[in-house]
Amino acid sequence: MGRRPLDIDKIVRDLILNQNPEEKKVLAKKIWDIAYKKGIYPSSIHDYYMARGRSEFTGSTVPAINLRSMTYDLARALFRVGKKNNSKAFIFEIAKSEMGYTAQPPVEYSAVILAAAIKENYSGPVFIQGDHFQANLKKYKEDPEKEITALQALISEAVGAGFYNIDIDSSTLVDLSKPKVKDQQFANYEVCAKLTQFIRRVQPKGITVSVGGEIGEVGHQNSTPEDLRAFMEGYKQRLRKGLTGISKISIQTGTSHGGVVLPDGTIAQVKLDFETLKNLGELARKEFGLGGTVQHGASTLPEEAFHKFAECEACEVHLATQFQNMIFDSKHFPQELKNKIYEWLKVNAANEAKEGETQEQFFYKTRKKALGPFKNDIMNLAQDVRDAIAAEIENKFDFLFKQLNAVNNDALVDKYVSLKRVIVRKRQDTEALVHDGEGAD
C-alpha cells in the first residue's frame, strides 16, 4: 500500500479549532516539519533591509499584512499573488492586541501561514512578524519591570513560534510634556534597547531577528527629524556594544489605525504627509544605515495613494483593517452570521459605545472584537463561500503589490536572505522554547 496523500487542510482545521495549547503545538510542529521538507523557511528580513539601507536597491515597499480572520485562505491568496508577481518580499504579521481579540496565538498563526505555503507549493523564506509589541503606558508607570517582563514573555513565545521579525512599539512611552526632544524620547529608546537586547538573547543561532522601533504613536502628532535623531542617538547609547540594532523605524505621518469612520459608516479621507515619510526615510538610511521608514495604518487610504509609498522610498507599509472590512462587507459573507455577530456586539461591546455615534460607527469600530468569539463560525463557512471572499481580497493584494512595486524581487530576496533550519526543543523548567540553528540549507 502507498502512503496516504497529505491532507494539509485537515491539519490546519484541527489546529485552528483545537482549544488545547499542547495539542496545538503538536499539530504546529507537524506543519513545520512538512514545510522544511518542502523548502519553506520562517525567516528574518533583516539583511534585506540592511542592503536597502546601503542603497543597494531602491524603489519598492514591502507590504506587511495583518490577517485577523480567514488566515489560511488569505495567506494562500498572498502566496499565489507572490508567485504570480515573482515576489518574496512580503510579510505576514499580527499585533499583540490582535492575537487576543482574534484568538490567534503565535504558535497557531505561524503554523497556519506555513501550511498555506505548503498548499500553494511556495518555497523559500516566509517572513512572519510580531506587529506592535506595545508597552502599555499605564502599566509601565505602575511597574516598569513588570511591563517589560510581560513583553519579554510575549517575545519569547513569538520567536519560539517562528516570528523572526519583531516590531517593538514603546512609542506609547514618549512624553511630550518634556521640553527637550531627547527627554521626550527617553523611555521609548531605553525600553526599545532593552527589548532588542532580549531579542538578541533568545533568537535562534544563525538568525538575526529583524527588529523595528517606533518614534511616533499612530494617531498622534507627526514625527520630525529631531524625534528620529533623538531616538536613534539615545538607542545606540543604551544598546550593549557590539549588538545588532533595529533595521527600520516606524513614524507617524497623519494616519490612524482602522481609519476614521464617519456617521454613515464610510471612512474619512486622510491627508498623509508623504514628504515626512520620504525625508525621514532618507535620514534613517544616510545617518543610521536603517532600511528606512515604516508606515502604519495605511490600508484604508484611497487606492490612488499607494503608489506614492514606493516613490517616497518607504521600506514597509502595514495593512490590516481594509481586509477585515472586505470580509465583513463581502456580498458572499452570510447575512445571518453578520446579524448574529452584530447582536453579540450590542451586548458584549456595549461599554465601547460613545454618546452621539451612529450604529454604523459602533459596529465598524467594535466588530474586530467578534473575530475570536466567532472564529469557529467563520472557519466553518462553506469552502465555496470562503473561496469567493478570498478571491475578492486576492485581487486587492495583487493591486497593492503592483502599486508598492513589490514585484520581481525574488532574486534580491534570495541574494540577501539566507535560509536556516531551526530545531525547536522545549526547555524542561519553563514554557519557553529554545532554538538551535542547524546552519544554512
Q: How would you characterize the overall build of this protein?
A:
It is built from 18 helices and eleven strands. The chain has a single domain, classed as Alpha-Beta Barrel (TIM Barrel), CATH 3.20.20.70. The chain has 441 residues and is an alpha/beta fold. The model is unreliable at 426-441 (pLDDT under 50).
What key attributes describe this structure?
441 residues; two-stranded antiparallel ribbon; 18 helices; alpha/beta; disordered C terminus; 8-stranded parallel barrel; globular
- CA-CA gap between termini: 32 Å
Write out the strand line-up for the largest beta sheet, numbering strands in chain order: 2-3-4-5-6-7-8-9
Low-confidence stretches: 426-441
Structural domain count: 1
Summarize the main sheet. 8 strands, parallel, barrel
Figure out the total of helices. 18
Can you identify the CATH superfamily?
Aldolase class I
Give the helix level as a range of percent.
Answer: 40-55%
Structural class: alpha/beta
- CATH fold-type name: TIM Barrel
CATH 2nd-level architecture: Alpha-Beta Barrel
Counting DSSP E segments of at least 2 residues, the number of strands comes to: 11
Give the C-level CATH assignment: Alpha Beta
Order of helices and strands: HHEHEHEHHEHHEHEHEHEHEHHHHHHEE
Please tell me how large the radius of gyration is: 21 Å
How much of the polypeptide forms β-strand, as a percent range? 5-15%
Estimate the global geometry from the Cα principal axes.
globular
Q: Round the mean pLDDT to the nearest integer and report it.
A: 91
